[in-house]
From TrEMBL:
Keyword Transferase: yes
Gene Ontology terms, MF aspect: 1-phosphatidylinositol 4-kinase activity; ATP binding
Domain annotation PI3K/PI4K catalytic: ranges: 254-589
EC numbers, comma separated: 2.7.1.67
Enzyme class: transferase
Protein name: 1-phosphatidylinositol 4-kinase
Alphabetical UniProt keywords: ATP-binding, Kinase, Nucleotide-binding, Repeat, Transferase
KW Cell membrane (keyword) present: no
Superkingdom as given in the UniProt entry: Eukaryota
Family: Belongs to the PI3/PI4-kinase family. Type II PI4K subfamily.
Entry-linked Pfam families: PI3_PI4_kinase (PF00454), ubiquitin (PF00240)
Source organism of this protein record: Thlaspi arvense (Field penny-cress)
The Ubiquitin-like domain, residue ranges: 33-104, 109-183
Amino acid sequence: MSVASVALSPALEEVVNFPGFIGRFGLNLDDPILIFLTIAGSLNPMRVMESDSIASVKLRIQSIKGFFVKKQRLVYDGRELARNESRVRDRGLADGKLLHLVIRLSDLQAISVKTFGGKEFELFVERSRNVAYVKQKIASKENELGDGELTLDGEELDDQRLVTDLCRNGEDVIHLIIRKSAKVRAKPVGKDFEVSIENVTHKHDSVDGRKRYISPQAKPKDFVVEPVVVNPEIELPSLLKDLISSTIEGLEKGHGPIKSTDGSGGAYFMQDLSGNKYVSVFKPIDEEPMAVNNPHGLPVSVDGEGLKKGTRVGEGALREVAAYILDYPMTGPQTFPRDQTGFAGVPPTTMVNCLHKDFNHPNGYSFSPENTKMGSLQMFVSNVGTCEDMGYRVFPADQVHKISVLDIRLANADRHGGNILVSRDGKDGEIVLTPIDHGYCFPNKVITNSDSIHTLVSKSRNQTIIGISCRIFPLKPPYLVQFEDCTFEWLYWPQAKEPYSSETLEYIKSLDSEQDIKLLRFHGWEIPPACARVLRISTMLLKKGAAKGLTPFAIGSIMCRETLKKESVIEQIIHDAEAIASPETTEEEFISTVSAIMDRCLDQYPQN
Ligand SMILES: Nc1ncnc2c1ncn2[C@@H]1O[C@H](COP(=O)(O)OP(=O)(O)OP(=O)(O)O)[C@@H](O)[C@H]1O
C-alpha cells in the first residue's frame, strides 16, 4: 500500500475538514493535497492547500496535535522549512509526500515552590530528571526537607519517575509529604507546576537522601572520553582540560549521559561527580540531523547536504569548535591557553572521542573502538530557558548586539530563539544571553563531484589515528558560497535597530578574516576554500557596514533573504562579482571585486 492510500482517521477527517477552517486561516480555495506528517516515526495524514503558508500549516499542526508553532521544526526533502511566509507549493510539497515534524521541547521544567510560611522560589529542573532529583533540589533550597515522598493521586511516586512523565497532564496536583508532618502540593501554573509546602515546621537532621538518588554505578572502564588533538603543538587550555576531567569524573561515578529531548540532532548532557549538575553537552557527529544514527527519526541525507542549504552532515561539530575558536575576547585572538570568555560568549567547546552505551547505537552496542563517537563537547551553561521562552524586550541591547556580531561574521544559518540561552547573572540578576549551536555556520555549496578530498585526521591521546570527516571540495575556483538560508531571529527585535556601542565598533574594527583563517588552521582546521570565502565576505560586510554606522538590523538585512524566492543583497553582490570573474581570477582578485561592488551598494545606505 502506498503512503498516499492511507485513509484518514475519522477524528482527523473531522479536524482537517472542519467547516470554516478555510475562512479561519485565510486560505485560498484551491484543491487540497494529502500529505503525511511523520512524528517520531508515526504517520499522520493531513490535508493542506498548495497555497497555504508554512505558518498556517504549523498552526494546523498546533490545532490538531497540540504542539506550539514555535516548538515545531518542519523538514521536507531534507531541508528545514524555516521561512514561515513561504507557501507549500514553493517548497515543492505535493500530494502523497512526507513531511517530518521535529518538536523542540524545552529541556527545562519550571517549578514554582510556595511554602505556607510565605517563602517562594522557582526551580528549573530538566525534564529528564527524576522525582528524587526534584526532592533533592527542594531540600537544598529549603535546607529542611530530607526524607520526603511525592505523591500523585494518593500514590507515592517512585524516585525514578521522570519529571517529563509527571507534567503530561496540565491538571495534575503533586503532593510532597515530608516525614508525615509537612506537605508540599504541586499544581500546574500554565506550563509549569507549582509546589506548595504546608506546615513546614519540622526541622530535619541532615539531607542524607543523596546516596539513594545516585544512579546505579557503571563499571569504571565502561566509557571513554578523550580529547581529539589535531595539532600536537597546542596544549589544551586548562578550561577545556577541566571540562573533560569533570565529564570523566561524572561518568566514573556512574552518572551516564542524559539525552536531550530538544533539538534535531543527538545532544547529551554530561553530569558532574555528584550527579547534581550538568557540566557539558556532547553532540556526536553521527547523530547530527540527517546523519546515519540521528535519534529523532530524520531521514538520512541522500547527497550529504545538511538541513540547511550549504551545510554538510557530519561537519556540525567542527563548526561548533570553530565558532568557539573565532569568538576571541576584546583583547584579540591569542594562542592557547585561553581562559577568557569570548566577545559573544560562545561556551568553551572542543572536539572529543566518546564511548558510552547510552548514546544512540541503533545497530547494537559493545565496548569497542567502532562504537566510539567523535563530536563536540561544550561547557554546559546554566540557564532559565532560551529566547524562545520569553519576550525579547527584556534582553539588553549589548547582549543582542554581541550575538549579531557573531552571526554576521560566521554567516550563521541557524540562529533561532532556541539557540540563545538566557541566564541571570550577579546579585541584580542581569540577563546574559549565550549563543549555542553553531553547526550551520559558513554555508557553502556542496560539491559532490570534484577533484579533491579533504580528510581531517586526528590523533587522540593514545596516539591512534582517526579520520574525522571526509569532505569533498574543489581545490580550484569557483568556490561557491551559499547565503540562502541565513536567518537571524534577533533581526526582528527592536535592539537590532539601535546603533553599536563604541566598544563593539572597536571589536569589529579589529577583526581580520585572514588572521581568523590562520587561527583555524593553527587549531587543525584547514578551512575549505569556500568556507574561507564565506568568512572573508561576511567579515567584510560587518566591518564596512559598522564603519558606515549601520545598525545590526541594516547589516543583517543585507545578509538575509526577505522572502524565500528573493535573493538577499549579499547574494546579488556575490553574483555580480562571479559574473565578472574568469577561471583565472585569483581569490584575492575576487575578494577585491566583491569589496568594490559592496562599497557601491553600501553608498546607497544613509550614513549615520
Ligand atoms: N552549552 C549548553 N549549555 C546548556 N544547554 C545547552 C548547551 N548546548 C545545548 N544545550 C541544550 O541542549 C539541547 C539540544 O541542543 P542544540 O539545540 O544545540 O541541539 P540541536 O540538535 O543542534 O538543535 P537544533 O534543532 O536547534 O539545531 C537544547 O535544549 C539546548 O538548549
